[in-house]
Amino acid sequence: MMAKIQMKTPLVEMDGDEMTRIIWKMIKDILLLPYVDLKTEYYDLGLEHREATKDQVTFDSAEATKKYGVAVKCATITPNADRVKEYNLTEMWKSPNGTIRAILDGTVFRTPILVKGITPFIPSWKKPITIARHAYGDVYKNTEMVVPADSKAELVVTDKNGVETRSLIHEFTTPGIIQGLHNIDKSIASFARACFNYALDQKKDIWFATKDTISKKYDHRFKDIFNEIFESEYKERFDAAGITYFYTLIDDAVARVIRSEGGYIWACKNYDGDVMSDMVATAFGSLAMMTSVLVSPDGVYEYEAAHGTVQRHYYKHLKGEKTSTNSMATLFAWTGALKKRGELDGLDELIDFADKLEKSSIQTIEDGVMTGDLAALSALENKTTVDTETFLREIAKRLDTMMK
Ligand code: NAP
Ligand code: MG
């Protein structure tokens, strides 16, 4: 019997809902606890406990993440009208991810897990592309109006002394529409720092693109803020790490992304990130293979899977039926968090364990043992579809060999 790997600082553990909650416990029991003397500060973000604490637990878990620096989160239900009935809620509690992101002021980075046998739709893509999406403002906080014929639309800004600055949008002779957008320098700066920090952390190049040739004030401001922060705070560290910051126009970026072999971080404005993250995720193959990490501008990390609670599979599970739910993204949330904790605390053994756990899970799929969602995509000749728990036990077999 090998001695268990010791930890110094606890991870903030945020438990969640439905099928991913079942997987959460299985990952811990089958793959983590046999090897690691797991130290966590546990927060139950399952909907029942959010209701019982009036959502205080979500706020507490975010504050704990600020304190300790690294969290791992299970997928959680964002309540809608159906869920209010199903769980007998006293309120339609807000999305935990939204609450946590607001407290940490973070940016979300999404990266696909690549395995042999599942080929991206873009044949040149050999390495993952990480998408970072700015999570504030633009069209997501807009004001819109329908404008009748024979109207004049203007932008008006009133300063604290009541002085107005006006700018004509359009003289409407026929009916039309207008839209007012905004963003805030501080939010753009946080986004820039989160992106540059993560690029250094991952030792990957970072790309950023806007339409500054057309939007000479709005988009140009994004370009300028990124550039100023890069030159004054990051350039030397990027040079030392051998990575680059690359700025271009959004249409040029899209063309280059398609022709590239991947391996970089692509920072996107809010709308571009919304559209491009679904494009990139789909082109890489599967939502169940997409990892996600929230990085705050002061370097706090929260790891999770990009998918939801896989509700349909959970109802099957409740009926006693076997499910074949893919646990890769949730497992990589754990390995990401353990590696980061290991890095911060100087625990090489913990980093090595997390690496081996990732390798053994990829090995399992490349050996042809996988869940149904991947079996449907995989080009491997000999493949076996296994249920949720068997997949984890197959990983455990390979991990056990690697750990000896
Ligand atoms: P979902 O849980 O991501 O699942 C959508 C479908 O994608 C599933 O029904 C399944 O397809 C497939 N899928 C997703 N993950 C899978 C996995 N690991 N293995 C195998 N198949 C997988 O999205 P949803 O059903 O729209 O949302 C369910 C709940 O999750 C909602 O209450 C929502 O609020 C919440 N949610 C939470 C987060 C988060 O916490 N970060 C993110 C998104 C959604 P098949 O059914 O065809 O097998
Ligand atoms: Mg979207």
How would you describe what is shown here?
- 45% of the residues lie in helices and 20% in strands.
- Helix 7 links the parallel strand 10 and strand 11.
- The chain has 3 domains: 227 residues, Isopropylmalate Dehydrogenase (3-Layer(aba) Sandwich); 121 residues, Alpha-Beta Complex (Protein-Tyrosine Phosphatase, Chain A), CATH 3.90.190; 38 residues, no CATH class.
- The protein is an alpha/beta fold and 404 residues long.
- NADP nicotinamide-adenine-dinucleotide phosphate (NAP) binds next to helix 10.
User: How many whole angstroms does the radius of gyration measure?
Assistant: 23 Å
The chain-level mean pLDDT equals 95
Q: What's the number of structural domains?
A: 3
Any idea what the CATH architecture of the largest domain is? Answer: 3-Layer(aba) Sandwich
Which range best describes the helical content: under 10%, 10-25%, 25-40%, 40-55%, 55-70% or over 70%? 40-55%
Highest-level CATH class of the largest domain:
Alpha Beta
Kindly state the number of beta strands: 16
Shape: globular
Distance between the termini: 10 Å
Ions, cofactors and other ligands present here are: NADP nicotinamide-adenine-dinucleotide phosphate, magnesium ion
In the predicted model, the low-confidence regions spanning at least 5 consecutive residues are: none
- Strand % is 15-25%
Tally of helical runs:
14
Query: How would you write the strand order of the largest sheet?
Result: 2-1-3-14-13-4-5-12-10-11
Secondary structure class reads alpha/beta
CATH superfamily descriptor of the largest domain: Isopropylmalate Dehydrogenase
SSE arrangement, N to C: EHEHHEHHEEEEEEHEHEHEHEEHHHEHEH
Can you tell me the CATH topology of the largest domain? Isopropylmalate Dehydrogenase
Main sheet specs: 10 strands, mixed
